[in-house]
Every structure is written in structure tokens, then in C-alpha cells.
Amino acid sequence: MNQDRWAAAQVERGKPRVYIQQFLDLKMPEEAYLKIAKELNLEKPFEEDGAQLVMETFLEDLDDSSQCDNVHIQRGDGMVMLMTVISFPFKQATYDKLQAAYVAKKALSTSQD
After folding, report:
1. What are the pLDDT tens digits along the chain (113 aa)?
2. b/e per residue, 68-105, with b = 16+ CB within 10 A?
3. pTM of this structure
4. Got the DSSP string for the chain?
């Protein structure tokens, strides 16, 4: 490892961060989508860059720490659907409870053998 490169860096390690991933489909009438695109000053709302910005705006308004991957857009029959995979952090307390339950279950199954 090149020690000089990282001399000013501080490293902290702790409990793992756990993220949940799930798909998210955002479907709305094309008219509503175009209204949002206009509010965001999108020049090309039906290209993936425009769809990405609309989805990121939705997630910001959702305010649950979700982050999205690439966004794909489909349109037809007067509807627009934005599709992506989102990930959001598991609360540390929830993770700790799940980990404790897993360890307890494993201990029980080992003691029953």
C-alpha cells in the first residue's frame, strides 16, 4: 500500500451499514409527468437523464434516505412509468435486533444437535 498517498486520511471502522434494495416503479399520467418536467426545466423529459432527475426529485421529496440506480422510462397509452432499483439504509437498531435474533436462533439449533 502506498502510505504517502493516504497519510492525511483517517479511517474508522465499525458496524456494517446494511442497505435494503428493492425495485421502484413510479407510474403517472403523461400530463402530470410533463408538469413535473416543466417545473424542473427539463428540455428533454423523455430521455433517461430527464427521467433520472424526476426520480431523484421524487426520492428527495420522499425523504427516507433512498438512493436510486439508473432510471429507465417507458411511455404509452397516456402513461409514463419510471423504473429503478432503490437502496436505503436499514436503521442500526433494527439491524442489531435481527443480528441478535440470528445469533440466538443459531445457538438454539446448535444446542439441539
Report:
1. 677 888 888 888 877 777 778 899 999 999 999 999 999 999 999 999 999 999 999 999 988 778 898 999 999 999 999 999 998 777 777 777 777 888 888 888 776 65
2. beebebeeeeeebebbbebebeeeeeeeeeeeeeeeee
3. 0.66
4. --TTTTTT------SPP-EEEEEEEEEEEHHHHHHHHHHTT-S-TTSHHHHHHHHHHHHHHHTS--EE---EEEEETTEEEEEEEEEEEPPHHHHHHHHHHHHHHHHHHHHT-
Residue reference for cell 465499525: 14
Q: What is the DSSP letter of 55?
A: H
Helix or strand holding residue 80 (H, E): strand 79-89
